[in-house]
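Many introductory courses stop at the sequence. We go one step further.
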Amino acid sequence: MELHERLSTPGLPATNGWNGNGGDPFAEIKNRIHLALISELGPRLFDIADTEAVRARIEAEIRDQLQQEAALSREDRDRLASEIADDIFGYGPLERLLSDPTISEIMVNGAQEIWIERNGLLSSTMLRFTDSSHLRRIITKMVGQIGRRIDESSPLVDARLPDGSRVNAIIPPLSLSGPLLTIRKFRQDRFDIEELVQLGTLAQDAADFLCRCVEAELNVLVSGGTGSGKTTFLNALSAAIPERDRIVTIEDAAELRLDQRHVLRLEARPKNIEGEGEITIRDLVRNSLRMRPDRIIVGEVRGAEALDMLQAMNTGHEGSLSTVHANSSRDALNRLETMVLMAGYELPLRAIRQHVSAALDLIVHLDRLDDGSRRVVEISEVQRMEGEMITLQKLFEFKIDRFEADRAIVGQLRPTGLRPGFMGKFERHGIELPLDLFGGPGVSLYGANGAAR
């Protein structure tokens, strides 16, 4: 049967979409055309669909068939042609969301509910999948492009798209709400520290201070909750690393994009279908120590690799950076202690805390506020042990000035007036640090000859 004949055959199977429930009156037409194309080209479609000739041919067939639907207006035909083409060549109703640079996250809660995050706030959309099988088809195509599979025997996938977007998909029997899909999008052009200042994420003096801290090879930990902007901030902060340094980045799913010339990127590998072949973050951290790095950047510390990262910071790899999920700077230290215990060594708690306090110099904590904005709310120095506790000293703290009529928060990251105890590191690297950064008199740390005042 010719392709155009298949397209016009009303007897081809169509899934039970929303046309029967009042959701999408064009579901039957879209499914009939889509399934006819799949039936004609089979699995070859996804192998050759990227060629311009095949795409032009299939789009022409779609438009020809839609011309035969007398009940469709011109606007409906154009919209349906676009939606069907998106299903075949892209990701269906998600295609326009993925191409929207203002959207940072896409959440599909089953076939009939799609949410997005824009400017830190959640909102629902009018977009829908025809049914669960339509959503499953898109998920299967999405994970198939990166060499993964999802089915009843492997119902959970956590990976990234070719453009760097992070994807999590989970299907029945693990999900009782039908297929679920979450996509964390990333800007193709990363934020630099100046853009974050303009957005109000942090103040200019705090940004200058943090860039000097990176140049002075301080070990910095970025903490924050989910969606608070830790990876974005780490990416921007890493731009202050000098070009002369050899950098190794280690991530679960590669998201960091450094512009320096001497960057080596490592990415963990999950288990295969047989449950073998896994390469963990910890394996990569250990291996990176044999690669002669000047700096090690771990995208996110989640488990036993925390011990290896701290050991690296304590054994000559100063200036390393990482992130951790935490609700406060103090909570970040507590989480590090727990993750070190996950390494399986029976270390006394005091020994772990001494290890942590000796390795870390600075904790930068971010938070997503009620108005959706992402802010640096605290910059704290990690000091030494006092008794059984690690002491933290706040150097900068976010203060709320007022709430606007639309609940927008007006405030600023301000110095606390306390001066850090790691001034000697700045001196060793010849980096001048104005003391007025901390609310003191407007003099520099160093005199004309570079000697400490």
